[in-house]
Amino acid sequence: MSGATFPKHLLDFQEWERAQLESLLETAQMMQEVLARPVKKVPALTGFTVATVFFEPSTRTRISFELAARRMSADVVSFTSSASSTAKGETYRDTLRTLDQMGIDAYILRTDAAGVPHQAHRWLQKPVINAGDGWRAHPTQALLDAFTLREKLGSLEGKKIAIVGDILHSRVARSNAELLPRLGAQVVACGPATLLPGKLPGASLTTKLREALEEADAVMALRLQKERMDKGLLPSLPEYIAGYQITEARLAWAKPEAPLLHPGPMNRDVEIEGTLADSPRSLVERQVANGQAVRMAVLYHVLVGKR
Amino acid sequence: MTFKSRILNADEVRRALTRIAHEVIEKNKGTQRLCFVGIHTRGISLAKRLVELVERFEGQRVPMGILDITLYRDDLTEIGLQPRVRETRIPFDLNGKAVVLVDDVLYTGRTARAALDALIDQGRPSRIYLAVLVDRGHRELPIRADFVGKNLPTSRSEVVKVKTLEDDGEDAVELWEVGET
Amino acid sequence: MKGEILFKNATLVDARGEHGTADVLVGEGRILSLSGGEAQRVVEAKGRCLSPGFFDLHAHLREPGQEVKEDLRSGLEAAARGGYTDLVSMPNTTPVVDRAEAVRALREKAAQIDRARLHPAAALTQGQEGQVLCEARLLREAGAVLLTDDGRTNEDAGVLALGLRYAASWGLPVAVHAEDAGLRRGGVMHEGEVSWRLGLPGNPAYAESARIARDLEVVRYVWEALETRPQGRSLLHFQHLSTRRGLELVRQAKREGLPISAEVTPHHLTLTDAHLEGLDPLYKVAPPLRTWADVEALVEGLLEGSLDCVATDHAPHTEDEKSLDLLRAPFGIPSLEVAWPLLYTELVQKRGFPLSVLVARFTDGPRRILGLPPIHLEEGAEASLVLWDPSQRRTVDPKGFASKARYSPWAGWGLSGWPLLTLVEGRVVFEGLG
């Protein structure tokens, strides 16, 4: 039987090689087929228990992971806490160590602070899947973006992908800048000057939307957090919309048929013009559907074949 | 691994498959509701041959699907290397069908067990048969084949290799010994 | 001549240089002789170095109020083990040390503990709130040696100017944590390629240099207006310099003769922002670990004397606190017990930094900032000394720390230069022989 080894964790893409990522996306393709069946469930992970541990609320991501685990027949427990109870002295380490006494095989972790999945992997020596840590990484989101893009564009080799919005605070942008170039794509990140980092490995940066969109094979708009205005990073919402909203007219700068993605949840008529969000150009719903298959594939690769 | 002997050559493989095709038609009393599902990898090549043979004998092309049993294996919690998940494609409705599952070698019976589960998750066939080119014994589960090309007593240290034209460039069945060269 | 301890064949190193070997006799709290004599205890010191005791200008001992992190006993014990005979404690405790009684209480307790000597710093402003000045005269009388709002930054330049003028009139230097709060924002690490890639809020190098530039103008303003200008004293002391640009400003101001001084920590001399790659809050310090170019500049600054001293900024926290995430974990690490061996190994052994200069930055440098006379190895000198081993290598094992903070970014590093014996006025306060 042919086989391969994969990293035990999905913290980010640092230790994942292109071939491993390609086969992970291939497995996701196979999982799509499972999801199309009348019985959307396989016994692959029978006997495994995974915990979703969310220190930052995100119902969508948690449900997507939990369904993915259940469709693979894993037992799922879920722990949700808030940053406030952590502030009350309940440390991540205590919580995770307590859970670890209950025979968990893998952890799916979401936090508002960068690095907690790395810390967890040091404390637990169990597979950890990062479901988003602060501004740092959201690898399964990037994988489902890549999967969705490949479904539409075929190979990503040489393709130009424009990511537009609050790049500085976006784990989605960071993970995509890490992943898409590993699959051959070229990433241009675009946003207001105050919401761009000084540099972003894997991506070129620009404040000029037209420059980012021209010749783009696909466009990804990011969610704009309202708190950026409170912190003085943006003068106002209309100012952002005037400069960076993806409209039908602006999308015309990209290649014909270039699809539009958004990691959700979307602020309609802020990041994307409402009518465009509902148009056939938008792959937003496809992204959500693909999320489950990708997460099933991630669970398979992280959990199976550990010895 | 060392080569020990050739059990079947290309002609013998062809004759065995021809016999299986006839037996299937006879047992099913024709091609009604008949279909084949090949198990990755060589079961797929063998199923294709059987579909062609049935068509030649009965003038009727029956549907065929392919099955990957990786996600149904019972050893995924403990194996070392990670098996690749391959395509499962059954492009027809299984309900009420007489399915012939096709694999190259029947050994412990675990693959067949997994294949049965995988198949049943996809629909409710009226009947499932198992066809294998070689039955080498050493069953670990209460499973038997309905159609067998060759019964071959083996020891556990031996490996039975089925080669197909499509996958290996020739049709043959060989016996190999695990261990020192 | 009869003494208490005789160091036989000790290699003498002080701020003036290396002086070969001698038999150093200690008694009555002084160095009685450099040519041997009789003693109750004879310490064979062949191949080992004797230096004046180290002086730390910047340590957080957390008492009162935060004894779960550290207390006087554990902190002063850690200092003695690190070869320190003297230490300045920071006033950002609970409550803040901003009154004479608090200073006296600390000194009395420290005297009973009898390890490294404690010299409390007191707050510059009441409650360190940056508004109303503290009672500098009464604080000095009680034994405070320095005024600082460290732990916070002095945002109001007007208050700082008043504080400098007032503290100077009572002979007390003022120390500042020079970082511009606005530029620093919520930064938890150095702003640069690593922070951008890791998605962590960055603290730019210019947060430090912008504040230093402002403070230098404040010093100039105060200095020009002073009726008497105490010569050779530091009016304003810059704590824990971390950037090349900040150092350049300090260097230039010193050339112009401004009465300022500056310190650098062991971590800013040995670690960089690349250590944050593993996303471990252990490396979260304030100001943050910078780049290798900054480290190089700081070593150069320490050599030439733009940086007057090495100060630890020993800042212990509980292991639980340091196990929070990078946004919530507190800034700071313990370093009293490793500072000397670390810099002896990394600077002197690996980079050829002159030994006597490093000794000077651990002894005369900090003393001068507080207006204290130097201690040199000569007859009659105060016997506050450290005997250390320049050759034997030992791995840093934080589990054995006297400090309550038993973790370290240098855990597992192989270091030489470990202190063997620390004396305060002739009394053994750390015994690490045998």
Automatic annotation (TrEMBL), chain A:
GO terms for cellular component: cytosol. L-aspartate binds at residues 88, 171, 223. SUPFAM superfamilies: Aspartate/ornithine carbamoyltransferase. Keywords: Pyrimidine biosynthesis, Transferase. Its EC number is 2.1.3.2. One of its GO terms (molecular function) is amino acid binding. Residues 157-301 form the Aspartate/ornithine carbamoyltransferase Asp/Orn-binding domain. One of its GO terms (biological process) is 'de novo' UMP biosynthetic process. Pathway: Pyrimidine metabolism; UMP biosynthesis via de novo pathway; (S)-dihydroorotate from bicarbonate: step 2/3. The keyword Transferase applies. InterPro entries: Asp/Orn_carbamoyltranf_P-bd (IPR006132), Asp/Orn_carbamoylTrfase (IPR006130), Asp/Orn_carbamoylTrfase_sf (IPR036901), Asp_carbamoyltransf (IPR002082), Asp_carbamoyltransf_Asp/Orn-bd (IPR006131). The keyword Secreted does not apply. PANTHER family: ASPARTATE CARBAMOYLTRANSFERASE, ORNITHINE CARBAMOYLTRANSFERASE, MITOCHONDRIAL. Heterododecamer (2C3:3R2) of six catalytic PyrB chains organized as two trimers (C3), and six regulatory PyrI chains organized as three dimers (R2). This is Aspartate carbamoyltransferase. It comes from Meiothermus luteus.
UniProtKB/TrEMBL annotation, chain B:
One of its GO terms (biological process) is regulation of DNA-templated transcription. GO terms for molecular function: uracil phosphoribosyltransferase activity. Residues 6-149 form the Phosphoribosyltransferase domain. Keywords: Glycosyltransferase, Repressor, Transcription, Transcription regulation, Transferase. A motif (PRPP-binding) lies at residues 99-111. Its EC number is 2.4.2.9. It catalyses: UMP + diphosphate = 5-phospho-alpha-D-ribose 1-diphosphate + uracil. The keyword Transcription regulation applies. It comes from the Bacteria. The keyword Transcription regulation applies. InterPro entries: PRTase-like, PRTase_dom, PyrR, PyrR_bifunctional. Also displays a weak uracil phosphoribosyltransferase activity which is not physiologically significant. Belongs to the purine/pyrimidine phosphoribosyltransferase family. PyrR subfamily. This is Bifunctional protein PyrR. The gene is pyrR.
TrEMBL record, chain C:
GO terms for biological process: 'de novo' UMP biosynthetic process; purine nucleobase catabolic process. Keywords: Hydrolase, Metal-binding, Pyrimidine biosynthesis, Zinc. It is an enzyme of class 3 (hydrolase). Residues 47-216 form the Dihydroorotase catalytic domain. It comes from Meiothermus luteus. Pathway: Pyrimidine metabolism; UMP biosynthesis via de novo pathway; (S)-dihydroorotate from bicarbonate: step 3/3. This is Dihydroorotase. The gene is pyrC. Substrate binds at residues 60-62, 92, 317, 331-332. It catalyses: (S)-dihydroorotate + H2O = N-carbamoyl-L-aspartate + H(+). Its cofactor is Zn(2+). One of its GO terms (cellular component) is cytoplasm. Gene3D superfamilies: Metal-dependent hydrolases, Urease, subunit C, domain 1. Zn(2+) 1 binds at residues 58, 60, 150, 313. Belongs to the metallo-dependent hydrolases superfamily. DHOase family. Class I DHOase subfamily. Coiled coil: none annotated. GO terms for molecular function: allantoinase activity; dihydroorotase activity; zinc ion binding. The keyword Cytoplasm does not apply. The active site is at residue 313.
